[in-house]
Amino acid sequence: AKRLGRNNVQWYQAEMEILQNKRLNLRAMLKQAIENQEFELYYQPQVEAGSGRLVGLEALLRWQHPVQGFIGPDEFIPIAEETGLIIEIGQWVIEQAATYNRSLQQRGLAELVMAVNISSLQFQREGFVEQLEQTLNKVQLAPKWFELELTESLLLENIEQVIHKLQHLKQLGISIAIDDFGTGFSSLNYLKRLPLDKLKIDKSFINDLVTDKKDAAITRAIIAMAHQLELKVIAEGVETLAQSTLLQKNVCDELQGYFFSRPLPADKLEVFLKNYLPS
Ligand code: C2E
Ligand code: CA
Ligand code: CA
Ligand code: CA
C-alpha cells in the first residue's frame, strides 16, 4: 500500500507539472496575443421576450492561437486575471465592442445595447470609469448603448468604492447588469444599496427549467424580486422553445441563448441581423 501511495504522489506531481507548464505557456502566449491580433469578439443577440425584438448583443472574447488553435475564455480569462493582462485585454474588448456597435448604428444595421463582461481587477482599477467614458467619447458611441456585465463577487469588495463607481456610471447613462445571478454566495443586501439596471439569471437555472420544479421556482422568484426592485431580468442559456415559452409566461424581460443564436463573428452577425424576424 505504501508503494502504491508513493506512485500516486509521483503521478500527481507529474500531472501538476504538466498543468503548470501549460499555464506558463498560456501566460507567455497571452502576452503576444494582443500584439499579434489573435483576439476576436463574437456577438450574441439578446431579444425582448414579449415582442421577440432584438434589443442587445453580448460581446464574447475569442482567442485563435496560430499553433494551438482555439482557446476558450474559460481557460484563458483566469490566467489573464492572475497575470494582470486582463487590464489590457479588457480595455481592448471595450474599445472594440464600442467601435463595432457604433459602426452597426452608422451603417443603419441595428440600434442595440452592447453588453461587455468586466473582470473584477479591471473594474477595481482607479480611473476605470473615466477611461470608459473617454473611450465611448472617442468612438462616439452614446453611453446608453453600452452595458457592463459585472459579477456578484465583484460588488462585495470595497463596497463604498463600488457604489461610487456605479453611481458615476449611472450618471453617465451606462447600464449595469449582474452576471451569473444566483450562483455567488453574496448577500442580497447589495441589491438595495447599488444602482443596478438588470439581473442576468445564470444558465445553470435555465438548463432544466422545464423539468425541474426547483429551478422553475428559483427563476420565478428572481424575476418577481427583480421587478419589485425595478430591475430588468434577462435569462441566459435559453436553448429551446419550451424554455423560451416558459420564461415568457413568467414575464422575464429578455432572453439570450442558442435558441435565438450562438455568439457570432461580425460578418455572420450582420447576415443574422438582415434576416431576423421577431416571432
Ligand atoms: P458568461 O459571461 O456567463 O457568458 C455566457 C457563456 O455561455 C458564453 O460562453 C456563451 O457563449 C455561452 N452560451 C451562450 N448561450 C448559450 C446557450 O444557449 N447554452 C450554453 N450551454 N451556453 C451558452 P463563452 O463565450 O465560452 O464565455 C465563457 C465566460 O468567459 C463568460 O461567461 C465570461 O465570464 C468570460 N468572458 C468571455 N468574454 C469575456 C471578456 O471579454 N471579458 C471577460 N472579463 N470575461 C469574458
Ligand atoms: Ca456575461
Ligand atoms: Ca453565466
Ligand atoms: Ca461568468
Description:
This protein is α/β, with parallel strands linked by helices. The protein has helices at 2-35, 73-83, 86-106, 120-124, 128-139, 152-156, 159-172, 189-193, 203-206, 213-228, 241-249, 266-275; strands at residues 39-48, 54-65, 69-71, 113-117, 146-151, 175-181, 198-201, 232-235, 254-255. It is built from 12 helices and 9 strands. An 8-stranded mixed beta barrel has the order 1-2-4-5-6-7-8-9, surrounded by 4 helices. Strand 6, helix 8 (189-193) and strand 7 (198-201) form a beta-alpha-beta unit. The chain is globular and about 60 Å long. It starts with a helix and ends with a helix. The model has no long low-confidence stretch (mean pLDDT 93). The structure holds ligand C2E and calcium ion (CA) (3 copies). One calcium ion (CA) binds next to strand 6. One of its GO terms (biological process) is cellular response to nitric oxide. This is cyclic-guanylate-specific phosphodiesterase. Keywords: c-di-GMP. Residues 23-277 form the EAL domain.
